[in-house]
Amino acid sequence: MGLNIDTVPESVAIILDGNGRYAKKNNITRYMGHKAGCDNLETILEETVRLNIKYLTVYAFSTENWKRSEEEINGLFKLFDLYLNRIRKKAIENEVSVKFIGDIEKFKKNIYESCIQLEEETKKFDKCIFSIAFNYGGRDEIVRAINRIIKDGNSTSIDENTFSKMLDTKDIKDPDLLIRTSGELRLSNFLIWQSAYTELYFTDVLWPEFTIDEYHKAIDDYNKRSRRFGGR
Ligand code: IPE
Ligand code: IPE
Ligand code: MG
């Protein structure tokens, strides 16, 4: 029996972790584990729209994930390419605007162009802003922003608001709630600037097993918290 959710955070971020452990547990390849993770992402995206959550930002591939085997990386890019089409359909059906954060210019030309095309095609939608972090690292994002500022050469000093606008996340509200599945208690370089005052939720549930009920549990836990931003 699911929880009854009447209030929701405006901006949710998720670190999709545990596909590998799910594969091991079910005696399937890591590739199939990642595939199960992609399928679950579609379910959670639809539920996000249904709940009227305005921003969903997910961590799909980090700048550190290049340390994985070539086989696994190739598999992840294959899935990314495959799911771009499926996400496109879901986005149009649900009036979702899709964005990418991270250094996607490093992708192969055809994948990079599909990403830009998908952003263009869905930018008119505003029911939900769904951002996919691919080749994303918080430190890398900050350093790229600083280099942009240096290159522009117009500023001698900068404030927090202006700096936030230089980041990949300029169109995304800072997360109210950040969920990490799979029991790891760290941010692994995700949204390190943006999560300064985010409420964190960690669960042992593996990402492919993170059901709608589990999602509701996380939101319910968030709703019980009293948010503070340093004031009294
Ligand atoms: C998360 O699952 C997906 C990516 C990092 C691409 P993992 O592959 O990290 O799964 P575990 O941590 O090995 O279980
Ligand atoms: C974080 O998960 C990155 C993504 C989910 C895309 P990892 O599995 O790569 O993180 P660590 O290595 O456990 O910190
Ligand atoms: Mg992991």
Measured distance between first and last alpha carbons: 37 Å
CATH architecture, please? 3-Layer(aba) Sandwich
By CATH, the topology is Undecaprenyl pyrophosphate synthetase
- The CATH superfamily appears as Decaprenyl diphosphate synthase-like
- Count all strands and give the number: 6
Helix content: 40-55%
Q: Report the biggest beta sheet as strand number plus sense, adding barrel if it closes.
A: 6 strands, parallel
Low-confidence stretches: none
Structural class of the helices, strands and pairings?
alpha/beta
Strand content: 15-25%
Domain tally: 1
CATH class placement: Alpha Beta
| Anisotropy-based shape | globular
What is this structure, in a nutshell?
This protein is of the alpha/beta class and about 230 residues long. It has helices at about 20-25, 30-50, 70-95, 110-120, 140-150, 160-165, 210-225, and strands at about 10-15, 55-60, 95-100, 130-135, 175-180, 200. A six-stranded parallel β-sheet has the order 3-4-2-1-5-6, sandwiched between helices.
